[in-house]
Amino acid sequence: MALNPPSMTISFTKFMELCEVYDKDVMGRSQVRQTGEGGRLYPSKKKSAAEKRRVKAVGGGKTEPAKDYKPRKDIGVQGAGRGTSSKREQQPTKERGSAGLTPREQQRKARAERMAAKSGAKTKTADELLAKKKKKTVDPNYKPTKASGLTRAERMKVHRKGETKLRNIFKDQETAKYKKETGADPDKKGKTKILSRVHKRMST
Predict the structure, then answer these.
(1) Which of 15, 55, 122, 144 is the most exposed, having the fewest neighbouring CB atoms within 10 Å of its CB?
(2) Are 57 and 66 in contact (CB under 8 A)?
């Protein structure tokens, strides 16, 4: 005995219910978003009186939950207070770089752009622009410094020894100059003056 196959027909009411479930506005979302009260875009996160921790003193050593904040005036506005500068500030009406141009210069620039578009001129890439820059060349007379073979401590010792010798030469020169100017040996003040001159010569 053959079994009758189940009927594949559905009622119009059932069909409309399925259409509502598979509505395109709902299909594009991972979940159905519920709106909050008072025109909010999202459910309110306001705590109940039992959950509130903010309290205020009412006298007699007693406290009670603090009052709620007043609702914002921009409730229900998408992105209120975040990234809405276009609604508060005047936005540019011309292309970037054209603000400082005179009307005549703007006409010339527009004409040049039209001519470039007609001729099929290609905008140069960064590689093409950098390719025309001159490469740094090495002086043919340059000779690299030969390695001394000394350690850093040894090099510093030689350097300090040379500076000491040069400082003594400058000191003798300035002392002789001082004696010639004053006709006497330098006193304490004179020695300070000589050392100042030596320091200045060493730093130049």
Answers:
(1) 144
(2) no
CA–CA gap between residue 7 and residue 1 (Å, rounded): 18
As a whole number, mean pLDDT of residues 6-23 equals 61
Range(s) of the domain holding residue 165 = 152-203
DSSP state of 86: H
**What span, in angstroms and rounded, lies between the C-alpha atoms of 115 and 113?**
5
Domain count, the chain: 1
Classify residue 147 as exposed, middle or buried by CB count within 10 Å of its CB (0-12, 13-18, 19+).
Answer: exposed
Cα separation, 201 vs 94, whole angstroms: 60
CA angle (61, 47, 41) in 5-degree steps: 150
**What's the pTM?**
0.31
Q: Is residue 143 part of a domain?
A: no
pLDDT at residue 27 greater than cutoff 60:
no
- Residue 76 contacts residue 39 (beta carbons within 8 Å): yes
In a domain, 14, yes or no: no
- Is residue 101 within 8 Å of residue 109, measured between CB atoms? yes
Q: Which two structure tokens, joined as six digits, stand for 152? A: 């850093």
Instruction: Please give the structure tokens belonging to residue 21.
Output: 């479930």
Average pLDDT over residues 32-50: 72
- 171: nearest Cα among 146, 199, 145: 199
